[in-house]
Each structure stands twice: as structure tokens, then as C-alpha cells.
Amino acid sequence: MKKNLISILFVVAAIGLGIISCFLLPDVVAVQVGVDGQITNTMPKLLAIIIPLGLSVAGSLMNLTGKEEKNIKGYILSVVGIAVMVLSLLVNR
Hints:
Mean pLDDT: 90
Number of strands: 2
Strand order of the largest sheet: 1-2
Strand content: 5-15%
Number of helices: 3
């Protein structure tokens, strides 16, 4: 039960961040920043939202459908997707 609740909370957080990103991110999103602080790679906004959202949802689905109780791979994947969305919001503000 606890596993399901955490996975569902990760999905809700990822979807919430995706909706916020739709409004706050520019049309061209910086996805890589060099050591000198200059933007080295960009991506369209839709892709910059869909990729980390997909990672988070895929990780949560791994947890919800998995039979192992102590499998943390799905949690890690979900957290990475959420962290990427938060970082893209911070870099592109």
C-alpha cells in the first residue's frame, strides 16, 4: 500500500511540474549549460517537458506493476525525472 501511495505521489508531482513548465518555460529551453555558464544545447519546450515527465511516469509504473517489495529502481527513475524538470525550471527562469 505504501509503495502505491509513493508512486502515485511521484506521478502527481511530475504532472504538476509538467503543467507549471508549460506556462513558465520559454519556447526554446536550455538543456545543457557549460562550465562558463553559457548555454551549449537547446530543445523545444514540448520535448523538454515530455522526456522528464515520461521518465517519472515510467518509474512509477515500474513500482506499481513490480512484484518485488524492495525494488528502488523505479523510485530512482521517478526522482531523476522530477529533478530534471526542477533543474530546467531553475536554469530557464
